[in-house]
Design goal:
The chain contains nine helices and 15 strands. It is of the alpha/beta class. It has two domains: 147 residues, serine acetyltransferase, domain 1 (Orthogonal Bundle), CATH 1.10.3130.10; 102 residues, Hexapeptide repeat proteins (UDP N-Acetylglucosamine Acyltransferase, domain 1), CATH 2.160.10. It has a six-stranded mixed beta sheet with strand order 3-6-9-12-14-15. The chain has a five-stranded parallel beta sheet with strand order 1-4-7-10-13.
Length: 268
């Protein structure tokens, strides 16, 4: 996984400290949710523990109980510190890029783009551990629960923001590097029945706007922007803006990392 730890670990964890402090206040203010907030956040000693519990509740089914899933997710988080580091970087990305997000606890509890990413991270760990039947089961459950379908073999970095998230698809050989932002209905797909390396490679800092489709083993260069509704069938040069069906270069983003600015307009 091409990821990096951008946030503090559990021994020095300002993100978790802020989540607990704010949720303590929210639990006092909203008595209807006091039990939910206690069970999902305040009963846990770390972000990893809270995440394992909350994600398991969302992915559980009658045939795969939440407690069994929680134990498995906790095992992955304990075995690979990069998973927790990537989760923190994802939380930071959402907090910094989404004007509707005013706290780290909001995506942790309620944003399905964040939940889908963390479900993928567990499934990816299982895939690499040779437990591919369970990994594919988790892919299916994530698709059903969050409306986001990410193959567990895909390679995703950290600091990724999937805004709204509904109908996002990433195929088996997709690569998404650090600090990428995607909006709803984005597809990183193949072009037919070919096998092998057949899905897009999205480099650092790319912004892919709502409804865009990137198809085939094409490279979207660092700092590029893909306009809403575009269909990308060929390589996108770094630091360019593309639009249309099929997409063509129409300009250059104002910023080197458009993913961080979240400006979907063509007139940069």
């Amino acid at each position: 996984m091409p990821s990096k730890e951008k946030a503090a670990g559990p021994q020095d964890d300002p993100i978790w400290d802020e989540i607990r402090r704010e949720i303590e206040g929210e639990a006092r203010a909203e008595s209807v949710l006091e039990h939910f907030l206690q069970a999902t956040v305040l009963d846990h000693p770390s972000l990893e523990s809270s995440l394992a519990f909350h994600l398991a509740q969302k992915l559980a089914s009658p045939m795969l109980p939440a407690e069994t899933l929680r134990e498995g997710i906790a095992e992955a988080l304990a075995a690979d510190a990069q998973i927790g580091g990537a989760a923190r970087a994802d939380l930071q990305a959402i907090r910094e890029r989404d004007p509707a997000c005013t706290s780290y606890w909001m995506p942790l509890l309620y944003f399905k783009g964040f939940h889908a990413l963390q479900a993928y991270r567990y499934a990816h760990w299982l895939w690499n551990d040779g437990r591919r039947v369970l990994a594919l089961h988790l892919q299916n459950r994530g698709s059903e629960s969050f409306g986001v379908d990410i193959h567990p073999a895909a390679q995703l970095g950290s600091g990724i923001f999937i805004d709204h998230a509904t109908s996002v698809v990433m195929g088996e050989t997709s690569v998404v590097e650090d600090d990428v932002s995607l909006l709803h209905e984005v597809t990183l797909g193949g072009t037919g029945k070919e096998s092998g390396d057949r899905h897009p490679k999205v480099r650092r800092g790319v912004l892919i706007c709502a409804g865009a489709k990137v198809l085939g083993n094409v490279e979207v260069g660092e700092g590029a922007k893909i306009a809403a509704g575009s269909v990308v069938l060929s390589d996108v040069p770094p630091h360019s803006t593309v639009a249309g069906v099929p997409a063509e270069v129409v300009g250059r983003p104002e910023f080197d990392q458009p993913a961080l600015e979240m400006n979907s307009r063509l007139g940069d």
